## 1
Amino acid sequence: MPLLLADAKRWFDDSLMASMRAAGEQPLTVAQGQIFARLDAEGTTVAELSRRLGVTRQTAHQAVHGLLTLGLLEQIPDPASARNRLIRTTAEGARVHRRAQAALAVIEGVLSDRIGRDNAAALRHALTAPRGEPPLVEAPREGRGGEA
């Protein structure tokens, strides 16, 4: 199932990136695109972004740096900490994000048409259902005597 989920995500990512390029938008990496979905309106630190994305701070910093260079994000002082800077979208970044969101809505509609509306609704329901904490499963032991 993890591979199926990864393949489905790649289908969305590939479609979004191709659609944005076709619309004349600056090409972004998938990692850069994910930054927008994880930002708070008032701004988010790189450390918090890395936690939300499940990547290292260096990886998050590289993605953010590219978006700063493109003028889609900006850094501002963090009022809660003189040591930190907050990352937030610029007006241009917000425009690009809105365009991406609109494209994703169309892509989702295409998926719904292809797999059926009921299946798409069931998929959304399954993916948004509470899963609880990830289980800790003991790996099966191999090579022990007396086991079948």
## 2
Amino acid sequence: MNTYDAAMRLVGLPATPTSRGQELQDPLTCFPSSVVLVTCGQGTDGIGVLARSFAILSPASALVAWTIERHVAGASAVEQAARWEAHALAYDQAELARRIAAASGHGLADISLRAGANDIRVLEGSAVTLSCERVTSFACEDSLIVIGRVSGFVRSDFPPLIRHDNADAISINIGGHPLGLPAETTATSLSYLLGSAFFYLYGQMRDVGGRLGYNNIEMFVITALGERGGRTRLEIETLLAYSAHPTGLQAMDDLEARGLIESHDAVNGVLSDLSYDLTPAGRAVFEQAWQAGLRVETEMASLLGVPETVALRALLYRFVGKIDRYAPAAWL
């Protein structure tokens, strides 16, 4: 009996894969794992493969292990390599992972590696790179298991890309009060938390508009046209109403009179179909507001940290993308 057979019998699973293995696919996705690219070799002889799994065997001895399918292209090359790098992909490298997965045993020609500290080859934009020396490798059923010893590493501030429940996720560390479902108190509800965050951010941006000499509605119009020009009078009025602003559009005429926006006559002559764009002066005001927004984001990053800020942006982007389809007018 080999080690694999013994381990499977201990946990009550058959050693030979069956339909049971297919049933396990769903529960096994509940175990989050980093997406790891392993590279070895140089130039045209270099190769990169996505690890099926990656594990820390012994922090004290700096031992790590990873597996790939035995029959993928490049398996023999990585098995024989004396040195290799394990790159934990960053949160925004999911497309790179899909491209490499589609071309198993991917060459290094279009994988951007650079020389990092101690001449470690670092994958550009990755979360962390471990440089490893081969200890041993062995076959186990359909898998090749490689064990290595970490000889050096290069780490960035990018949060790693995580695979969980068959979807891409972002690694974050949420401390403080536990946020259960449903919310135990109003203070932990999404409505309260999103509302509090909105008023904080809105207050920051309102101060910017005030210093520039524009009221809330004027800054709203300038920002809306800065994000996408050519909006009609009716569309801007709908956006204002949807965001609970007063819908009177005297601000449009005032901004045009001050040379910040310009209107384009509608083909049918209907006032509500007039379209608007920012003038160069209006664009300059929008750029100031945009820079102020970036400063607010920088402040958030300093309070939360880079991984949490990235995760918050990703979640809000996904949420807004889902609710925009039901909005009477799209912001972007």
